[in-house]
Each structure stands twice: as structure tokens, then as C-alpha cells.
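Field notebook, page 138. I keep forgetting to write these up properly, so this time I am using the form the group agreed on. The chain and the ligand, nickel (II) ion, are recorded exactly as supplied. Prediction of the bound pose follows.
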Amino acid sequence: MSELVRISMSLENSLMQAFDEYVRLERYPSRSEAIKSLMRQCLAEQAWERNQLVAGSVTLVYDHHRQGVMKRLTDIQHDFGSVIVSTQHVHLDHHHCLEIVVVKGKAARIREMVTIFKTVKGVKQNSLVMTAIGKDLV
Ligand code: NI
């Protein structure tokens, strides 16, 4: 853990009150923890915008009875094997499957895969969670 620094800042009282309510509702233990968490999220998003080495997950929900959907999703994942760490498949109910694709690699390549997932008919949900890789988690 690196050395701690203290900062002070000036802001409108109304903004502080609204933020304190956010901290309470999100159940952060303190303002500092909330601000650190939000700063890390901003840095991760910037790493994605700058096409750096990043990590994350893609959650897909689809109806596996739909013609060709499973084959198409598997073909895409084979094409993007260089950025896929693992895939977990869960049978949600009689019709629906949920897949969590854990990714690590250049942001643009991962975004390309997510965009291609969107072209597959039968995919009902396609959500990307963007995180930083370990060395950037300051
Ligand atoms: Ni399934």
C-alpha cells in the first residue's frame, strides 16, 4: 500500500449533502472510501477509452432454442480467443442461458467483440463491465 496523502477541497454545501446521501445509500463506510472507489472507476474507464490493457466481463443472456445463436456466439468467442480468459455458462431456465465472458486485453479488441455480440439475433442482454488490470489498480 502506498503512502497516504490528505487533500482538502471546497465545494457547494448542496453538493456535499447530496454526495453524503449517495455515500449513505450505497453503504460506503466513509466519504473517503466512496471517493476512492469512484476515482478507481474513472481511471478504469479512461484506460478503456485510451485503448490500454484492461480487464472486465461481458454478460450475455440468450434463448438457446433460437436457431444458430449458440453456434454464432461460440464462433465469435473462438475468433476473440486472445482476449478471453474464461467463459462460464449457466442454464437459467428451460429457454435461457447466461454466459459470463471474462476478458483481458486491448480495450478496442474487446469492444469489437462486444459490438459483434450485438449483431447476434436472440441475444437478449449484452452487458460490459469495465475494470482495470491489476497493475493499474492503485
Ligand atoms: Ni444453457
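OBSERVATIONS:
- The mean pLDDT is 94.
- The CA atoms of residues 79 and 113 lie 9 Å apart.
FOLLOW-UP: compare against the apo run.
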